[in-house]
Amino acid sequence: MSLRRPFLYGGLKLPSNIFCAPLAGCSDFPFRQMTSAYRPGLLFCEMVKIDALIRHDPHTYRFLDYSTDMHPIGAQLCGSKSAIAARAARIVEDLGFDSIDLNCGCPVDKVVKDGSGSGLMKTPEKIGEILFAIIEAVDIPVSVKIRSGWDESQINAVDIVRIAEQAGAVAVTVHGRTRQQAYKGPADWEIIRECKRAAKEILIIGNGDVFDGDSAQRLFAATDCDGILVARGTLGQPWIVEDIYRQLSGEPHRPFTVDDLRADLVDHFHKITQYQPERQALLDMRRVGCWYLRRCVGAKGLRMQLNQATGLDEVFSLLSANDWSALSLVEKSVVAQVGE
Ligand SMILES: Cc1cc2nc3c(=O)[nH]c(=O)nc-3n(C[C@H](O)[C@H](O)[C@H](O)COP(=O)(O)O)c2cc1C
After folding, report:
1. Mutate which of 174, 177, 183 for ligand 1 pocket (most atoms within 8 A of beta carbon)
2. pTM for the structure as a whole
3. What SS3 string covers 33-57?
4. Using a 6 Å cutoff on CB, does residue 50 contact ligand 1?
5. Residue 339: pLDDT above 60?
6. Going by CA atoms, what residue is nearest to atom 10 of ligand 1?
7. Which of 46, 137, 181, 300 falls 20 to 30 Å from 67 in CA-CA distance?
8. What are phi and psi of 116, to 5 degrees?
9. Residue 340: pLDDT band by 50, 70, 90 thresholds?
10. What is the mean pLDDT of residues 5-12?
């Protein structure tokens, strides 16, 4: 299996089987404005805590801001209580989301502590219970995102695929790393292959280490997965989805140039300023600028200047004054340095 356009996903017809991941602290509204322009099959908001959602916490609702051109869009729930998961799922469905995913991958201590996120990998039966409660509560497709296991001695992704299938989930995204590994080391694609072999009807979405069209193609070939979810590979290169489409449909590679990168960076910065108040916008632009500029040789000076800028006008002046012709793109794929 490889590129599918369109891609049948439960009752939905998605534009493709190349998805953009939920990324806490990264896949916010301006980020999704950028990635949705390249038409991924499905695009996710950052994860939201079930408890906070049913408390109607305004900050949590803001994570779920979206515009109509971002459809198809998925929300991801994080929590471990099936009773309130159903209520949270209904809220998300009422907000107009196209699908709901259950997070069983977040490795952060304070999330895992109450048995949520990757803590659920230790209690597979609870995953089944939560999924069942959500699926009963809503009409939109429900999926789950898991890791290969809790640690090397407890690799149980295949068992969870069976549980999710029984509960009626439409897909399982398998991130080929354990909780213990967090994001370190290469992702284990073999476990994704095993999950695909164990799946009857349920779709298996492979995830881990897709940073360009070539790695996307290799992930499909190595695992026979039904779709792929691109995560860190989307940071600072929202066009990666287009690269993957080209590679998988045998079209000639269209190399992105420094000018393309500058155009997307400036566009992304404008979108941030339209969405955030000035102080937050400045902080966001430092983070986002870093993702893009790490992809350029010779951009260290600009990166440092942007980090010291104290106003939005200064940021845009720095970008216009910069000699972009002196920069070149880094040859190999770059992994953005971020932590969850
Ligand atoms: C900064 C950051 C934030 C993340 N946030 C989420 C999240 O909200 N929900 C989730 O399921 N996974 C989250 N992940 C995990 C990614 O979706 C993905 O599973 C992981 O990065 C592996 O894919 P990659 O090797 O292609 O990056 C996050 C990862 C990073 C680096």
Report:
1. 183
2. 0.97
3. HHHHCCCCCEEEEEEEEHHHHHCCC
4. no
5. no
6. 22
7. 137
8. -90, 180
9. very low
10. 97
